[in-house]
Amino acid sequence: MTTGFMRRLLMPLCVLALTACSTGHVADPLKPPLTSLGNIQLPKEVGTPAFDLLTMDPRNGRLYVPHSSVATLEVVDVRARRLAGRVPNLPGIKAVALTSDPNIVYTSMASGIGIVDVGGLKLSKTLTVTGTPDAILYDRVHDVILAGVSGAKTEVAFIDPKTQTVTGTLEVPGKPELMDVNERAAVVYLAINDKDEVVAIDPVSQSISKTFKGCDIKGPTGIAYDADQGLLFVASSPQLCVVDVVIEQCRGVVDIGKGTDQIAFNPHTHHVYTANSGTKDVSVVDSTTLKPLGVAGSGRGAGTMAIDPTTDMVYVMAARSGIVGVYHDP
């Protein structure tokens, strides 16, 4: 269902029209928002390396890096700053979802959804879905995994990690991109890339409860939710669109870099980070003031990232170099 969100966009939240609304704040170029702490080199390969969406598990200090060009999941020990192990034979691997068990993760890959034994560094089982899965997310409130799937249909698959089975699917209006969880409202937000919208999914009823349009959302990719502010941040490169999901109103847009894929939110610093492969940098935005705090250089193909809110560390995958850039905020 479509809410009254579109109508409410006509209500001015600042002097300018909402579609042009921005903070007007210019970041201080002499005060970088992140401190570079070096790189973690991943195994080199012959040819052009390709990597996909990063996932951080603060419980064990493991960063999961899908190394799609060699069909391998790289497991990085961020505390020791080294590669902890590799899980091979995962063709088309794109993303990783955590579970309540830090020794088990789920991966999206060309052949379906893989269940990986992290301790044994092996694929233990593959679940079949009708299409090619991409972004995948663990909802700890409902103890369920959601995977966006594209094929003859565009849908979301729901997976029970206890039984390791697909419990249902939900057809969505277009190409599913990245997701984030609103634990207080018990919904999952999913970007629909080719429909310029974000849908809220109820994992219990396996249905769409709301649809958010407008607010300059165009070709959305990464999304992140700030529970304290009730704000949903949507990457529509080169802008970050801000939606108040509580009152269903647009809060405006913030300028970021180009070629943005994955974004992340740190509830400790109240900062939103966007990985911008086109401009080879990471944009940092204050989620309370909606002001851009500046950019930090990253590298070629650096469109995916993850953060650790327990340490305020930021990890960015410079895909063309095969290195993980390590930063601290600030």
Kindly describe this structure.
By secondary structure, this protein is mainly β. The chain has one domain (5-328): YVTN repeat-like/Quinoprotein amine dehydrogenase (Methylamine Dehydrogenase, Chain H, 7 Propeller), CATH 2.130.10.10. Helix content is 1%, strand content 51%. The protein is built from one helix and 28 strands. It has one helix at 5-8; strands spanning 35-41, 55-57, 62-67, 72-77, 82-87, 95-97, 104-109, 112-117, 122-127, 132-139, 144-150, 154-160, 165-171, 176-182, 187-192, 197-202, 207-212, 223-226, 231-236, 239-244, 249-255, 260-266, 271-276, 281-286, 292-297, 304-308, 313-318, 323-328. It has a four-stranded antiparallel sheet, with no helix packed on it. It has a four-stranded antiparallel sheet with strand order 2-3-4-5, with no helix packed on it. A four-stranded antiparallel sheet has the order 6-7-8-9, with no helix packed on it. It is globular, with a radius of gyration of 19 Å. The model is unreliable at 1-25 (pLDDT under 50).
In short:
With 330 residues, this protein is mainly β.
Topology:
Layout lengths: L4 H4 L26 E7 L13 E3 L4 E6 L4 E6 L4 E6 L7 E3 L6 E6 L2 E6 L4 E6 L4 E8 L4 E7 L3 E7 L4 E7 L4 E7 L4 E6 L4 E6 L4 E6 L10 E4 L4 E6 L2 E6 L4 E7 L4 E7 L4 E6 L4 E6 L5 E6 L6 E5 L4 E6 L4 E6 L2
Antiparallel strand pairs: 1-28, 2-3, 3-4, 4-5, 6-7, 7-8, 8-9, 10-11, 11-12, 12-13, 14-15, 15-16, 16-17, 18-19, 19-20, 20-21, 22-23, 23-24, 24-25, 26-27, 27-28
> What is the number of E strands?
28
Task: Write out the strand line-up for the largest beta sheet, numbering strands in chain order.
Answer: 1-28-27-26
Order of helices and strands: HEEEEEEEEEEEEEEEEEEEEEEEEEEEE
Can you tell me the residue ranges where pLDDT is under 50 for at least 5 consecutive residues? 1-25
Number of domains: 1
Number of H/I helices:
1
Distance between the termini: 41 Å
